[in-house]
């Protein structure tokens, strides 16, 4: 079991790094430069023109892992990793359309919020229906740490699932605002799901291969995305990544673990919601210097210390790692009681 997971990680890493070697110069050649939001930190404007859509690196890497290391589960009729990949690819395609619109318009505005939401909602419902039909998802809601199961009506579960999936995808997207931040935050999340496979057994091997391959792919992507970034993942990468994280949470049949393992995603989202709501209610006042939360820290936060991008990367990585360890302690005994 461990050999396959390690192999998936290694192939993911080397494949992403190899793709990046050709992809980054090509993206520069076609002038696929990222437009920077004008209301962001002023020093971010120097990043204008940095190639985007670099998420293709880890997308292609995890696809290769699924078709090589993941071939044996497919022969046995286990398609969990394939479903996760296809689902994430749909979100990646939505992100690609968004990136394409931004490049075409030469500004940081892509698809309309309504169009993205409807496309994401349709994808989420289709995924849950598919996973339910193939037996990967039940309507029994698992409560981590307490090892309790709460049965809920199927219609209510579908509404809950759609809300969680769309929320997770957009939360991961919000985290992608500083060099390496989304990738660095998500590597411990992916490793968590891979390690859960050790605790839960061979039945979850295909999902472990997907999680481990994605972790390796993200590390390979960081070769080019760590500060100072040579390429950004773009919405192509961030929406794919968000879709992959949500897919794994449901494929392992423990969506509520996202509250802990995805805590940083939640903080990023809540900071954005609180900022907008308070701004409107107070007629122009702000809770944060800027939202999402990583920009608040960049601008000095409440302490006055301005976090550098490398410091933010380390902070988010280690907090995410701690959340992953805590999450594992909450679920590893699920089938041992």
- Shape descriptor: globular
| Major pleated sheet | 2 strands, antiparallel
Beta-strand segment tally: 2
How widely separated are the two ends?
A: 23 Å
Strand order of the largest sheet: 1-2
Unreliable runs, pLDDT <50, ≥5 residues? none
Nearest-integer average pLDDT: 91
Q: How does the helix and strand content classify structurally?
A: mainly alpha
* Proportion of helical residues: 55-70%
**How large is the count of helical segments?**
13
Q: Roughly how many Å is the radius of gyration?
A: 19 Å
Taken as a percent bin, the fraction of beta residues is under 5%
List the secondary-structure elements in sequence, H or E.
Answer: HHHHHEEHHHHHHHH
Task: Please characterize this protein's 3D structure.
The mean pLDDT is 91. The protein is built from 13 helices and 2 strands, in the order αααααββαααααααα. The protein has helices at residues 2-29, 56-68, 71-75, 80-105, 113-133, 154-175, 181-200, 205-225, 234-251, 258-261, 263-281, 293-298, 309-331, and strands at residues 140-143, 148-151. A two-stranded antiparallel ribbon has the order 1-2. A hairpin with a 4-residue loop joins strand 1 (140-143) and strand 2 (148-151). 67% of the residues lie in helices and 2% in strands. The chain is an all-alpha fold. The protein is globular. It starts with a helix and ends in a 6-residue tail after the last helix. Helix 4 (80-105) runs parallel beside helix 8 and helix 4 runs antiparallel to helix 9.
């Amino acid at each position: 079991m461990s050999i396959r997971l390690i192999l998936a990680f290694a192939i993911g890493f080397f494949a992403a790094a190899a793709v990046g070697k050709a992809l980054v110069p090509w993206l520069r050649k076609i002038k696929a430069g990222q437009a920077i939001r004008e209301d962001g930190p002023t020093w971010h404007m120097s990043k204008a023109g940095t190639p985007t859509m670099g998420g293709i690196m880890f997308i292609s890497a995890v696809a290769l892992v699924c078709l090589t290391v993941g071939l044996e589960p497919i022969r046995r009729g286990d398609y969990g990793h394939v479903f996760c990949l296809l689902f994430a690819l749909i979100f990646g395609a939505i992100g690609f359309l968004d990136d394409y619109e931004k490049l075409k318009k030469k500004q940081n505005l892509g698809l309309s919020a309504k169009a993205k939401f409807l496309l994401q909602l349709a994808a989420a419902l289709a995924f849950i229906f598919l996973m339910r039909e193939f037996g990967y998802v039940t309507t029994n809601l698992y409560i981590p740490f307490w090892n309790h199961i709460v049965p809920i009506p199927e219609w209510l579960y579908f509404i809950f699932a759609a809300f969680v999936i769309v929320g997770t995808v957009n939360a991961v997207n919000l985290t992608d605002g500083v060099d390496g931040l989304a990738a660095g935050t998500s590597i411990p999340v992916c490793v968590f799901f891979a390690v859960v496979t050790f605790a839960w057994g061979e039945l979850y091997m295909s999902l472990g291969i997907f999680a481990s391959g994605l972790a390796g792919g993200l590390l390979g992507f960081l070769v080019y995305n760590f500060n100072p970034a040579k390429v950004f993942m773009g919405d192509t990468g961030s929406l794919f990544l968000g879709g992959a994280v949500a897919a794994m949470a449901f494929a392992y049949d423990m969506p509520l673990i996202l509250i802990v393992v995805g805590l940083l995603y939640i903080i990023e989202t809540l900071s954005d919601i609180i900022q907008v709501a308070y701004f409107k209610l107070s007629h122009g006042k702000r809770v944060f210097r800027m939202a999402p939360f990583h920009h608040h820290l960049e601008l000095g936060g409440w302490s006055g210390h301005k976090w550098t991008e490398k410091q933010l990367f380390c902070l988010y990585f280690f907090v995410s790692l701690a959340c992953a360890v805590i999450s594992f302690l909450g679920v590893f005994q699920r089938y041992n009681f």
